[in-house]
Amino acid sequence: MRIKEGNKEKDILEAAIKVFAEVGYHKAKIAKIAEVAEVAAGSVYLYFKDKEDILLKIFENIWRKLYTELKSIKENDDISPFEKFDSMIDLIFDIYIENPNLALVFVNEQNHIQRSAEEYFTEYYEKFLNLGEEIIKEGIQKNQISSSVDIKILRYFIFGAIKTLLQHWAVDPKNYPLNKIRQNIKFIIKYGIEK
């Protein structure tokens, strides 16, 4: 694979997000991605092996960004575990509010790519979820969160709720605005686990 020149790799990834959001990963064609990116179709193969490689890079970028930002939040001793929890939820929603097409790709394609690329799906997904668990553990240790909470179940409950609600938003954004979803998830989870 060639070293990135200019912004072609970024342009290809942004175009792929748009195309995947519009027609879905399985119906997307490299030629259409190249057209939207305003590059020659052959140029795409200078940066990516195939369409799956593009999708993997999109998810690598999402989860690396989320992990890096959550790591900074978790290490901040000036804020409480609940403030860290709020910030974690905000991170997830901010990334999708900034780029609604990315939310559609996340909702529609993460399960597929995790199953098909299981042995090399991004390490940052698990790292992000593990940091979330550490924040909950900190809340338990500081007696702000009930110790009867099963952290693994809470972990998947939170992300399952977010994914399901993002699916509803994708179908009916008027009745499920992302900011309303964000606030409700934060309220339900936070006050449902508060001691």
UniProtKB/TrEMBL annotation:
Keywords: DNA-binding. Residues 29-48 bind DNA. It comes from the Bacteria. InterPro entries: Homeodomain-like_sf, HTH-type_Tx_Regulator, HTH_TetR, Tet_transcr_reg_TetR-rel_C_sf, Tscrpt_reg_YsiA_C. Residues 6-66 form the HTH tetR-type domain. One of its GO terms (molecular function) is DNA binding. Pfam families: TetR_C_4 (PF08359), TetR_N (PF00440). This is TetR/AcrR family transcriptional regulator. It comes from Stygiobacter electus.
